[in-house]
Each structure stands twice: as structure tokens, then as C-alpha cells.
Amino acid sequence: MSQQLPDETLRKILVQIQQTAVQSQRALSLTRAQVASKERERRVLQLTISEINSTGQEVNLYKGVGKMFMLTPRVEMQRNLASQEKELTDDISNLNKKAKYLERQFNEAQGQLRDIFHNRTDDS
Predict the structure, then answer these.
(1) Which ranges of the sequence are coiled-coil (predicted)?
(2) SS3 of 5, please?
(3) What is the C-alpha to C-alpha distance for residues 118 and 114, in angstroms, rounded to an integer?
(4) CATH topology of domain 10-123
């Protein structure tokens, strides 16, 4: 650095960058956990769809409603499951985009910290 920053100002900048890095890392781990959860839900849903498709047309399908089960037409059940699968796929896609953004933000904060410390040691 050609111009020295006062130690207090430099400390405030470092604290702010560190906080950004920590927040990004926390949000990233939370987002990854959400992706894993949604992936599990989608796999269960896909298994359910494949099981329904493998059963005969004469088999009755029941949907859980609270503490009871209601007879549901096959077409309606398949349509509901397909829409849930699409919703989960969209959620996973959005969460993956969010994870990439948070990862980039974390890497930028770490890069800034490295630059500051590298320049600070060069100036000394």
C-alpha cells in the first residue's frame, strides 16, 4: 500500500471483512444442509412415483390427511406428486444458485483478508 491507513481504521475494515466471511460461511453451510434435505425429499418422492406407476390400475391409492387416509384417484395422485417433484427441483436449483453466490462472497472476503495481510507484511 502506498498510503498507510490508521490502525483503528484498518482494524474496523478487518472486523467487517471477517464478519462477512463468517456470515457467508454460516449461510453456506445452512444452504447446503437445505439442499441435502430437499434432495432426500425428492428421492423419496421419486420412489413413491415409481411405486405408483408399477402398481396396477385396479389398486386403490390413499393419501394421508391428518390421522386418516382418503381414497384419491390415481390421476390426481400422480399430478400432485409430479407438481411436488417439480417444486422440489426448483427449490434445489434456487438453493444451489444461492450456495454459489455465498461461496463466491466467502472466497472474496478471504481474498480481501489475504491481500490486506500480504500488503501489511510487505509494508513492515
Answers:
(1) 78-112
(2) coil
(3) 6
(4) Helix Hairpins (1.10.287)
DSSP characters for 28-97? HHHHHHHHHHHHHHHHHHHHHHHHHHHS-TTS-EEEEETTEEEEE-HHHHHHHHHHHHHHHHHHHHHHHH
Cα Rg of the chain, angstroms: 25
Which residues on adjacent β-strands are paired with residue 62?
71
Helix, strand or coil for residue 62? Answer: strand
Count Cβ atoms below 10 Å from residue 120 Cβ, excluding itself: 14
Q: How many residues does this entry show for the chain?
A: 124
Indicate the pTM of the whole model: 0.79
Cα 22 from chain centroid (whole Å): 17
How does pLDDT run along the chain (124 residues), one tens digit per residue?
445 667 788 888 889 999 999 999 999 999 999 999 999 999 999 999 999 999 989 999 999 999 999 999 999 999 999 999 999 999 999 999 999 999 999 999 999 888 887 776 766 6
